[in-house]
Every structure is written in C-alpha cells, then in structure tokens.
Specification:
The chain has 334 residues and is of the alpha/beta class. The protein has eleven helices and twelve strands.
Length: 334
Amino acid sequence: MKYRQFGNTGKKVSEYGLGTWAMGGNAYGKVDDEESIRTIHRAQDLGINFLDTAPSYSYKEDGHSEMICGKALKGRRDQWMLSSKYGRSVSQDKNGQTVYGEDFSTERAITSVEQSLKRLQTDHLDVYFVHTPSFDIPGIFNPEEAFAAMTKLKEQGKIKYIGFSFHLHSATWLEQIEPFLRSNVIDVVQVGISLLLPEPLDVLLPIIKETGTAFVARESLANGYLTDSFTEEGPFPKGHPFEKADKEKIREKLAKANKFKFLIDRAEGVASLPEAALHWTVSLPEVSLVIPGAKTIGELEQCVNAADAEAFDESTMQEVRGIQKAWGDWNIYG
C-alpha cells in the first residue's frame, strides 16, 4: 500500500480507503455483519487507514453501517482516519415503507454528529461531510449555514476537517461551493469519478489543484459497471439496484466499460478491469485516495490487488482521455 498527503491537512492516507455503503444492508444484496467487521480488520492488515461511512448507510433506520464501523474500530480507532456525513437520513413510515429525508440545517449538523460519535464509539470524526444535497430542490441546502455549523464543531474538537460530498456531478454545486474551497473553509471534497464518469477532470480538479484540497474519489467502479462481473442478464440478487433495470441501458454501459480493457497490463500488477479502473483513479495526481466499497474480505482483496502498481504513464492517461472526450460527458447515472 502506498500513501499520499491528504490535501492541506498534514495527514497521510492510504491511496485505497474503504467505503461502507454496502455494509449498511440497503445496497448490493444481503450482508453479514461479522463478515463486514472482519473485512474492516483485513483492510487494516492491508495498510488501509481511511474508513468512510454515513448515517443513511442503513436499511431500516439510520446508523447500521456506523454501528458496524464502531464495533470494528474498537481498540483500533487511533490507527484510522474516519469520516462520516450528515444531511441524509433513512427511516420507515407506519406502513413499513422506507422514507429518505434531507436536512442540512444547523440543528441537524449538531444532532447528527452526536449520534454518529455514539454509534462509532469515538469522541471525534476526522472528516465530517455534507452528504450530497440534492441540486434540484430549491432551498434544500444553505452553504453559509452548513459550514458555519461545521466550523463550530471543528472548534469544539468534535470534527477535525470539514468536507463536502457532491451529488452526482461536481458541477451540481460547484458555483456555490467554490468560494468555500478557495477560502479553505472546506478541507476535503468527495465526488464520483471513474473511467465512465470523467466530468470532474475538467470541472473540479483544476480548482483542487490550485487550492490543494483533499480529494476522496468514490464510485470509481461506476456502480459495478467496471467490475467485469455481470452481463445485462445479471446475475443480480434480490434487492440489487440493477434487478429491474433496462437491459439495453445495461448493455450500452457495459460496452463502454469494455473499451477500457486495454488498460490491463499497461502497468505491472494491473491484471483486470476493476483493478485498472481503480488504478486509473489513483493515477490522477489531484486524487488523495479512492474508496471502493466492499462487504466481504474477498471483495476487498480484489479491490486492492493493484495497490502497489506504479501510476499509468502519461500516454496511457491521454489515451483514456481521448476515449472519454469522444463520448462527451456521458452520464453513468442515466
């Protein structure tokens, strides 16, 4: 495992972190909590030191993933950079139907961090992210209010670094967020970026390069399309987000993903499409780390197989960019 500076924080992080969305049980099939804990412990053995979670990574009510992380980090907390988020919630109504909510108020920032600290069995978060506010709901998020509240939490020592997680594309909130990046109020950003979603390369990364802000890359396996593990027919277990998806759209996205198989063996140690996809992400110098999700040790080990590989060379990166630009800003979420 290799390590990088975490933006301007003075900290170093492993180039590969661990995302825990799937451990919450509301995405990508059934989970075994004990296996999730073993997976976090195995991540530490492999040199990973950044763990990302959120209250809404759960299937009935907030907090399942955070509670799993808290159990896994007991007695190990000082060896990890730990991030969580606020603003999104999951609950059930009186009919047992799942209800998703968004609340980015000062009050929610304060109550949510206290709840997260309790579940995570810790007295501070290393990074506290605003959790992907929807960009098409007027008034849903007030940056001045949110960052003022988070600054107070930072002064109180409950969080160390202020983060903002972009919803879908970085352009969705960049106009409102850029002043807080340039004034160094925001220490860390998190955004989806992948071979199939290159939008931040032109929109966000130039600002990150100027400001030195830490950059956490998520969804770099493009929600599974870059894993080379399924066709339009699946297999998709019950509850998988692609279970009822349009087969023609799946086929189209997989065809685009296959364009990048030429990256296999372009760097010594990169031997599969998912390895290449993650390795492309960490070959971008502005990226601090990538956080692939895993809920089993096997999934985790597949993600970090190429962790020791040298970055793709410039000609390879330009070849990738040529493919991406020929498509335009193709929407992986569509």
